[in-house]
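Reminder to self: tokens first, then the designed residues, so the page reads top to bottom the way the pipeline ran.
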């Protein structure tokens, strides 16, 4: 099937476009997202309309909303937390496998390099981060983290053996996730820890 399917690039949505999805849902279902729930839903959507719709569906499911509410109903941080939990449970085996490979430690070492690097990249902007920016972020959590670990494991995370979660753009010098869904998943994983 692979050679019979064409891929069409769909640009990521802006914050305003994602917020519009929430506004339309609010008016149609007579619900109201709290400011925090709205901001965090947009953040975790990572520019992906499908993820935004899925998070909203999970929030409504958790609050037993399946049709227009007779009274205005608030969806808050608790609804989003429940939705994020469902989101992690529902992620495909392919996504989970990539993260398992990236986080797996072959032997007991002081730092879980894959996890630290993926976390730093998840907290970076959508377009990625320079190696120095990743190192600075990691050092905030692990002040003794050596530069050599970062250099070595960035190379590993580019390979299929380690899940190929990230890519390197030689023009910009930035590392980023190979797929926006990976960044979404990373945001969800590290939010829950």
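Designed residues (193 positions):
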């Amino acid at each position: 099937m692979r050679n019979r399917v064409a891929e069409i690039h769909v640009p990521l949505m802006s914050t305003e476009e994602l917020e519009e999805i929430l506004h339309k849902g609010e008016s149609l279902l007579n619900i109201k997202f709290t400011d925090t729930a709205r901001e965090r839903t947009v953040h975790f959507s990572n520019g992906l309309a499908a993820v935004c719709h899925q998070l909203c569906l999970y929030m409504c499911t958790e609050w037993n909303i399946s049709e227009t509410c007779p009274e205005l109903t608030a969806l808050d941080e608790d609804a989003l937390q429940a939705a994020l939990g469902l989101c992690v449970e529902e992620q495909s085996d392919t996504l989970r496998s990539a993260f398992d490979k990236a986080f797996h430690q072959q032997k007991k070492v002081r730092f879980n390099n894959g996890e630290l690097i993926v976390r730093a990249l998840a907290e970076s902007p959508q377009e990625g981060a320079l190696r120095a920016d990743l190192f600075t972020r990691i050092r905030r959590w692990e002040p003794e983290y050596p530069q050599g670990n970062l250099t070595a494991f960035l190379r590993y995370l580019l390979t299929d053996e380690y899940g190929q979660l990230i890519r390197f753009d030689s023009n910009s010098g930035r590392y980023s996730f190979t797929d926006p869904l990976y960044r979404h998943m990373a945001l969800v994983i590290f939010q829950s820890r």
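The mean pLDDT is 89.
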